[in-house]
Amino acid sequence: MAPKKKPDTNGNAALHKELLHHMLLQRRFEEKVAEAYALGKIGGFCHLYIGQEAVSTGIIPLLREDDYVITTYRDHGQAIVRGVPPRNVMAELFGRVDGCSKGKGGSMHMFDRNVNFLGGHGIVGGHVPVATGVGFAIKYRGGDQVIVCFMGEAAVNNGAFHESLNMAGLWKLPVVYVIENNKYGMGTAESRASSTMEMYKRGDTYSMANAVVDGQDVFAVREAATAAIARARATGEATLLEVRTYRFVGHSMSDAVSGTYRSKAELEEYMKRDPINLLKATMTAAGELDDAALQAMEQEIAAVVQDAWDFADASPEPPLEALYEDVLVETTAG
Amino acid sequence: MPVITYRDALNQALREEMHNDDRVFLMGEEVGLYNGAYKVSKGLLEEFGEMRVVDTPITELGFAGVGVGAAMVGLRPVIEFMTWNFALLALDQVVNAAAKMLYMSGGQYPMPIVFRGPNGAALQLSAQHSQAWESWLAHIPGLKVVSPGTPYDAKGLLKSAIRDGNPVVFLEGEMLYNTKGEVPEEPYLIPLGKADLKREGNDCSIITSGKMVLVAMSAADQLAKEGIHVDVVDLRTIRPMDTEAIFASVRRTNRAVVLEEGWEVCGIGAQVVDYIQRDCFDDLDAPVIRVHQADVPMPYAKAIEKAAKPDVPKTIAAVKKVMYLEA
Ligand SMILES: Cc1ncc(C[n+]2csc(CCOP(=O)(O)OP(=O)(O)O)c2C)c(N)n1
Ligand SMILES: [Mg+2]
Hints:
The complex is a heterodimer. Chain A is an alpha/beta fold. Chain A has one domain: Rossmann fold (3-Layer(aba) Sandwich). Helices cover 42% and strands 12% of the residues of chain A. In chain A, the strands form two sheets. In chain A, strands 2-1-3-4-8-7 form a six-stranded parallel sheet, with helices on both faces. The radius of gyration of chain A is 20 Å and the shape is globular. In chain A, 52% of the residues are buried. The termini of chain B are far apart. In chain B, helix 3 runs parallel beside helix 5 (91-98) and helix 9 packs across helix 13. Chain B is α/β, with parallel strands linked by helices. In chain B, helix 8 (151-163) links the parallel strand 6 (144-146) and strand 7. At the A-B interface, strand 2, helix 5 and helix 6 of A face helix 3, helix 5, helix 6 and helix 8 of B. Bound molecules: thiamine diphosphate and magnesium ion. Residues 74, 122-124, 152-155, 182, 184-186, 251 of chain A line the site of thiamine diphosphate (TPP). Magnesium ion binds next to strand 5 of chain A.
């Protein structure tokens, strides 16, 4: 891994506070999601992002309103950072009509047209060609927008990844492909699935700029993403960014946190580098954060999360008529 | 009225729609410089340039997904598969992405995209290149499936498919590209979801679509010489299916043969027969019979290939059978 520069924290207290807020909100929101899941308020597959918050936080706030974000089923955190209201994310999880996908998508399929959040997608690798198509459309229109496509490291071994990056490299499309390498695809360690541990180097195959970065360090992620986004905007060219991170929870709600495929010792080792604690430490050292400020932020976030829960709980289930809605749009051709 | 080929009718449809709407682009293998594997896109690269007539690598899953992404943010892609056999590699994008996007986004992301290309068997291309996929695709809610049999229908339906706000699977036929028919010079559209009664006769209904329309018409000609007059109901669109047109015909003829290019098991004919038995049970004078491909992969050798395919003699025999006549 490339040595990382010491972050220049001078004069950026407001930004750091904002980044901390993004990370804490995702963390507390998902802790609440776990609670709701245990109570049976949320069903189906549900994948938490806890431990990986510096990735969404280091990248998404750098985007413009007219840029796009697309991701996998592990999508709650990214949706919230992009600006999907926590209320509507929670309502979607609860399967309610006020959900950001009207209760038809669930945990894995958060969509919000208002903020160009093109969805959580459930087929590993399946959204990577879609992201590439958004890049194509940007180029087709001669725009200078960017699409960021998040994926897990297991998607890299999927044919859709290869086909997509080949086209993006060939046609020069403004896509930032972000591999969130959390070391495991369900229970399969990357070393048991990939012929190389240097995922980012696959970018070379596609004549694509690439980099690897410490995904627990929000400043490092932000710096790498800044370069990738600037490249896409200025030259229309794609980047493959490997972000090394770790999930502090099971693959999904039905998976034990550790046990069969990873040890408790390993988990504990990685948890020492909790991205939230790392940022807090930096801010505290720089005199930007004290206990009172942190308490205030925690309280404000707790209220937002509770409000999301209350809102979701009060929102009705989709009416039965909704079952047959949104299969097709009405068209007037003919 | 000008008489043109099915190929040229499709070409006209693409050209007209690309003129009408600069969001429309054509993407696929060999569509540009090579003018299309079957020359459907002849001249389009020259006319519209590389951004709108896009040659791709051999990467069906990838470029189908590029179409989905482009449609998601407002373009109107026409994705050409060299044949539908190769589209199997892209079905994740057609089925899991295009067909579901509107629904799972709660209505936020319509998917105005056309996936098109030749479907079904040509001649002696054997097992991997001779398959009819309509029942696979028509199974999926969220897709429309169109299968035109004549140049006139091909043009009018492709134009409608491109203007439709939904993902449309457009099944052409390699053996149809050279067939000719009247196509008016002035622009026209044919609505999706509407069948066409291609021939009228009160003795039996033949319900079919796509390339099998030609088989049905030829069978009808021969039957007429024997004094048997059949309806030929060309479904034109398989999903949504024009059941009213089927019922109207069957209620008049009281007998039906369903003719399709693909295999029997879980085929389109099974669905048509189900619609008929539910709504026209009391109108029937005989069980409905299906004509379809033999339940085997397509062989290469001429005689057994012929034996595997639905054809005019098999269709005639089926009509006679539902009429309780000697074959
Ligand atoms: C094509 C496909 N195969 C299998 C699955 C089941 N599955 C869901 S998530 C997952 C692991 C993916 O791991 P990774 O890409 O590293 O993402 P992470 O879950 O670690 O965020 C698997 C195998 C799937 N959803 N799609
Ligand atoms: Mg992973």
